[in-house]
Amino acid sequence: MSAHSHAHDDHHGDGASHGTFKSYLIGFILSVILTAIPFWLVMDSVLDSKVATALWIMGLGVVQIVVHMVYFLHMNTKSEGGWNMLALIFTIVIVAIAIAGSLWVMYHLNTNMMPQMDHEMIKSFG
Amino acid sequence: MTMANNTASQTEAPVFYLKEEHHPETGTMLGFWIYLMSDCLIFAILFATHGVLGRNYAAGPSPADLFDLKLVAINTSMLLFSSITYGFAMLQMEKGKIAGTQLWLAITGLFGIAFVGLELYEFHHLWHIGATPMRSGFLSAFYTLVATHGLHVTFGIIWLVTLMVQVSKRGLIPENKRRLMCLSMFWHFLDVVWIGVFSVVYLLGVLG
Question: What residue ranges are annotated as transmembrane (chain A) (predicted)?
């Protein structure tokens, strides 16, 4: 019995944290709610403003990603001695630069295109 | 002499000079996490491509014309269910219960197959009405992003079946536990990517 509990302690000493039935259930319920709200917003056209709806979708998406990270992927600052979190932060920075940079550059490229090449013109060619 | 040696080597376990006393779990798990982060970069680039090309319909169909959000909602729930059932498989693994682990892994696999099946059904339907990747920049970006995710899930299912065979043959040995933990991270990571897909591609797309 003592050997078993010792082995169990060693296992946790490896740095990988595990979930419990409760934590998985909490994560699942939160995910269901956070998934249902944006679908409801779009399918039933709840909000008049498209910008507000889009912001709600993105905001709830980010919250749900955090919920999955914490409850399913067991992310915390202590796992793997903090290296997990460091790799994650580095990736988030790169992802933010890649996505925001692409959108920013290409938006300005589109805006600075020849004025007659707008969508109406393209449609009339089609 | 040689005969005696042969029989001895057959009965006794082979002795290796290099012994793996204790495989450090941290090495594999951290390495796999870094792989997942690099995979994240692939998806980031595909999301960026979709962000740039997502409105270029070339006078073709727009997301509002094409996407059935009810189907997407069902698909999303399939992946969400598979996430929690994989969690239950991990809990059974922690308790050392092989039958319970296998049962929950099988259920996870079925949800995964349902997800890929519904996605293929959607692709088939879109293809049938002429919304092919060649139709517009939006559709090229859509198929590349969503199919890359679907391909990941497909390989996850193959990996899952492989591990079920491994567990049935060798039981819940430390190596299999390590593999199951890696697949757990892979599987939950794919669910995280899908949050981005249904939010950005489907919901924001249909919103217009």
Answer: 24-42, 54-73, 85-107
ipTM score here? 0.82
pLDDT given at position A18: 74
Q: In this structure, is residue A3 part of a structural domain? A: no
Alpha carbon distance B137, B127 (integer Å): 15
State whether B52 and A102 contact (CB < 8 Å). yes
Identify whether residues A90 and A66 lie together within a single domain.
Answer: no
Chain A residues whose beta carbon lies within 8 Å of the beta carbon of residue B115: none
Quick check: B25 and A15 in contact, CB under 8 A?
yes
Cβ-contact A79, A15 below 8 angstroms? yes
pLDDT digits (tens, 9 = 90+) for A75-113: 888 877 788 899 999 999 999 999 999 999 998 888 887
Mean pLDDT computed over B171-178: 93
Nearest CB to A98; choose among B48, B58, B191? B48
Give the start-end residues of each E strand in chain A.
none
- In the 8-state DSSP scheme, what is residue B36? H
Asked if A67 and A30 sit in the same domain, the reply is: yes
Residue A106, domain extent: 80-114
Total of domains in chain A: 2
